[in-house]
Amino acid sequence: MRSEVFYIIIGMTLVTYFTRFGALALFRFTGVPIWLNRWLKYVPVAILTSLIVPLLLLPKGYLDISLHNDYLIAGIVAAFVAYKSRNIIATLGLGMSVMFVLKLL
Amino acid sequence: MLLSNLLSGKNELAEEVWVALRECTPVVLGVVPFGITCGIMGLTAKMSGIETILMSVFVFAGASQFIGITMLGAGITGWGILMLTTLLVNLRHLIMGSSLAPYMVRLPFPLQAFMAFFLTDEAYALTISRIHKTRYSVPYQLTVSIVLYLVWVLATITGVVLGGYISDPLTWGLDFAMPATFLVLLIPLLADRISLIVFAIAAVVSVIAALYLPGKWYIIIACLIASLIGGLLEEDSEHAQ
Question: Transmembrane residues, as ranges (chain B) (predicted)?
Fold first, then answer.
């Protein structure tokens, strides 16, 4: 292995670990403050939404709200199935099937 | 008595591990094409197979690895610029860490330090949805974390080994598995008025930010703004009562 790549891998490992452990290490001594706790309550909704929605509306990096956007159509189907069934297998099965058919078309 | 306690404790552990395995399977399926792509990308960026695999073993962060490999492939090898990019791409984990902190700070320090290494988007999403459904569970988070890690490393190895023979698996639409599984985790959370408002704000802000900002900034910006407004609305409704 080239030493240049070695140092890059070690550096990326440490930086990534810092972002994952930083908050825990900090709050270990202070506890999580009340104001932050209230704010954190809505983090799961906010983070899941901001992970999902751009993937469906901008799959190729530009805004695509049309019938040609396979991700959007399959996403709407998956959201409907998820709402009705609350079942991960059913949602994934139907969503991926729609995706597969759209890719074939 | 003691024995039966011990046995029921064991059962509970087995149950928790089993639930974790069942629930993480679809997410894991979504990770496989990304891991394979990561392996293929490493080779196309003129990294050796060992370098590509070791990056998955140590860094274990999909988005950062993709960006790091792309930069290396483009001849950008400055250590500082690669570290800064990794930091910016991974800043969202600080928010996820804070979100899990109220549950994790009570655990023994070495266990916290160990589990923090595995805190990916997927592990966070599964663990937080388990908390909302029942309660925080260490065996659940550990199982999900380790399975995701092993699959990520094995998928990278597969990509490196098969590199020359298969086309980019992401063109098959397999990458849709990830948003689809996240949808199942998100929808049960949208049970009250404030959550729906937070959802709407996060959706609009993330799309606008994704259009105009580079990298993964859209996740951080949208998450900060939407959850902050959610927290303020929560405070208002508490005062109103």
Answer: 57-89, 109-128, 140-164, 170-187, 194-211, 217-233
A47/B219 CB distance under 8 A: yes
At B3, the pLDDT band (50, 70, 90 cuts) reads low
Nearest-by-CA chain A residue for B99: A40
Main-chain phi, psi angles of A60, to 5 degrees: -110, 15
Q: Which residues, in sequence order, are CB contacts of B99 under 8 Å at separation 6+? A: A40, A43, A44, A47, B124, B128
Q: Is residue B163 domain-shared with residue B194, that is, in the same domain?
A: no
- B107 and B148 both lie in a single domain: yes
- Residue B235: domain span: 190-241
- Residue A47 C-alpha, separation from nearest chain B C-alpha, in angstroms: 5
Whether pLDDT at B135 is above 90: yes
Q: B185, A48: Cβ pair inside 8 Å? A: yes
Inter-chain residue contact A44 with B219, CB threshold 8 Å: no
Report how far residue A64's alpha carbon sits from residue A72's, in angstroms, rounded to the nearest whole number: 8
B107 and B47 in a common domain: yes
CB contact under 8 A, A41 and B230: yes
Count of domains observed in chain B: 2
Q: Is residue B180 part of a domain?
A: no
User: Which residues of chain B lie closer than 8 angstroms to A62, CB-CB?
Assistant: 211
A64 Rama class: left (phi>0) / alpha (psi -120 to 50) / beta: beta
pTM over 0.95: no
ipTM of the complex: 0.86
Q: Is the distance from CB of B14 to CB of B118 less than 8 angstroms?
A: no
B107: closest chain A residue by CA: A28
pLDDT-derived band at B5, boundaries 50, 70, 90:
low
Asked if residue B185 belongs to a domain, the reply is no
What is the mean predicted confidence (pLDDT) over A85-93? 83
B33 and B103 in a single domain? The answer is yes
Q: What is the pLDDT of residues B181-237, one digit of tens each?
A: 889 889 988 999 999 999 999 999 999 999 998 877 888 899 999 999 999 998 888
Q: What is the C-alpha to C-alpha distance for residues A87 and A73, in angstroms, rounded to an integer?
A: 19
